[in-house]
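TASK: fixed-backbone design
INPUT:
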């Protein structure tokens, strides 16, 4: 007994010493300055001569065009050379193609996104994002948290438009996990009364939330979903997110859900066993592989088609995020998990990804996961054939989804789904702008639109893979060339693994929990 006591005493001393050491390491790290970078060239007047315009609306190339840009707007497009003042910046567009900036329609930001994610987005021509939220309503305005707050978002938006920060248009942003209501409803198990939901939504709308994202992970009764839809409708907020398990996709679409995220929910919805799933008794009926293979074997193309027909009638959109399932299918592929882009991912997040991989618990590549992911591609093709609005989203920073380049990955998934390159381009530009109700300003290369442009050396209409030939990004009255991409990528790689930054992240994470 005495021996145990001595050991316990020694152990507690050791623990205190370890904790103290960690705190000292973090504290020293916090004192170290974070690095900074400068990239890009600002302009007032910009002329792009003799360039081929990619008309994303009609899927055609218009050669030999001259474009005059002034104060962030496309002022004139002409076949005749445009005369400007001597201070104008001139780009020779010969042998180049110009297209609108790309939209990542499902991504998540964090407090450190300006350092970790924004440079990567711009370096890959992703100039717009639909930010899908991270926090619960309690995080609408936290003073300091590892999560993005609305305060962060508003500050970034203004800094980006004033060229004080390099980053994309945060076109719309959400509040996430609305159903948890942890700090708003005392009892998470209880459905809040309608008046309370309405009060919360009114507050959110006033705080500048653009839409509500639901996941309904606790699988609440369907009445809760009905109340959410009614309240959101009353305050004028769209609802997007995961398909509620107890309500069919058709019913949720009929009630006005604006977009459905992730292919897996539509796969479940297209199974002859979906009633079991809708009744909420599906979870716990086996391992993930077993559930997946049941879903694959019971897949009915007709059910998917019916769902998409309802989506079309209701103007409901679908954002499949294929790469989130691809990860599951390939996480034990050495080449895949040793992706060279890991250098852009901070240690803390990498640890979370490893935990996710560990939780999957499979040693060999799962054929079932691969088939499940591929079924997602088949269903996207079906959705496209029915003619519903599709959105390309990366779901970064989900495992192996790297901000910026993950959107390119997702576009290649649409290619694997046998969707024509011209249609993929349309999805990632003008269609996304239309979904966001910003098509009069963005989404195509046209006079009077905002100059949000990419220059490529290969035609993306020939193959969507040609997006990789990105040469120049023009956004927020700044021009970013290849050398700037290198600076921005190197900056992220440096900061992601730096002592100072890791300490700042650890410290914020600790603060987020207290
Ligand atoms: Zn997400």
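OUTPUT:
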């Amino acid at each position: 007994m005495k021996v145990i006591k001595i050991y316990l005493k020694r152990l507690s001393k050791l623990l205190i010493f370890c904790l103290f050491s960690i705190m000292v390491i973090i504290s020293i790290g916090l004192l170290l300055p974070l690095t900074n970078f400068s990239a890009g060239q600002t302009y007032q007047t910009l002329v792009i001569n003799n360039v081929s315009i990619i008309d994303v609306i009609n899927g055609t190339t218009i050669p030999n065009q001259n474009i005059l840009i002034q104060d962030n707007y496309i002022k004139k497009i002409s076949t005749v050379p445009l005369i400007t003042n001597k201070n104008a910046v001139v780009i020779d567009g010969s042998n180049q193609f110009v297209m609108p900036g790309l939209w990542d329609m499902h991504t998540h930001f964090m407090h450190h996104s300006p350092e970790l994610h924004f440079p990567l987005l711009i370096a890959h021509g992703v100039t717009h994002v639909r930010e899908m939220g991270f926090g619960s309503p309690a995080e609408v305005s936290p003073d300091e948290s590892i999560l993005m707050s609305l305060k962060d978002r508003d500050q970034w938006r203004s800094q980006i438009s004033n060229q004080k920060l390099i980053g994309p248009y945060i076109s719309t942003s959400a509040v996430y996990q609305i159903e948890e209501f942890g700090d708003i409803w005392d009892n998470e198990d209880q459905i809040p009364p309608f008046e309370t939901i309405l009060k919360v939504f009114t507050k959110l709308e006033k705080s500048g939330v653009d839409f509500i994202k639901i996941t309904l992970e606790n699988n609440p009764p369907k009445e809760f979903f009905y109340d959410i839809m009614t309240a959101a409708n009353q305050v004028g907020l769209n609802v997007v997110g995961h398909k509620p398990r107890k309500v069919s996709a058709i019913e949720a679409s009929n009630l006005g859900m604006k977009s459905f995220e992730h292919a897996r929910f539509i796969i479940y919805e297209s199974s002859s066993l979906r009633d079991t799933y809708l009744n909420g008794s599906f979870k716990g009926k086996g391992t993930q592989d077993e559930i997946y293979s049941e879903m694959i074997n019971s897949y009915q193309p007709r059910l998917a088609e019916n769902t998409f027909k309802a989506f079309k009638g209701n103007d409901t959109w679908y954002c499949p995020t294929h790469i989130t399932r691809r990860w599951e299918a390939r996480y034990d592929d050495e080449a895949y998990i040793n992706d060279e882009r890991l250098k852009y991912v901070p240690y803390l997040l990498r640890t979370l990804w490893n935990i996710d991989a560990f939780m999957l618990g499979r040693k060999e590549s799962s054929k079932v996961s691969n088939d499940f992911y591929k079924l997602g591609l088949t269903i996207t093709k079906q959705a496209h054939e029915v003619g519903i609005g599709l959105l390309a989203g990366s779901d970064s920073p989900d495992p192996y989804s790297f901000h910026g380049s993950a959107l390119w990955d997702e576009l290649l998934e649409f290619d694997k789904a046998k969707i024509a390159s011209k249609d993929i381009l349309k999805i990632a530009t003008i269609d996304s702008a239309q979904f966001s109700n910003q098509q009069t300003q963005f989404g195509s290369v046209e006079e009077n639109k905002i100059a949000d442009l990419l220059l490529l050396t290969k035609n993306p209409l020939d193959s969507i893979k040609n997006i990789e030939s990105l040469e120049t990004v023009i956004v927020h009255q700044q021009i970013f060339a290849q050398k700037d991409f290198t600076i921005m990528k190197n900056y992220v790689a440096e900061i992601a693994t730096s002592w100072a930054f890791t300490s700042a992240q650890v410290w914020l994470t600790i603060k987020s929990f207290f």
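COMMENT: Confidence is low (pLDDT under 50) at residues 180-187.
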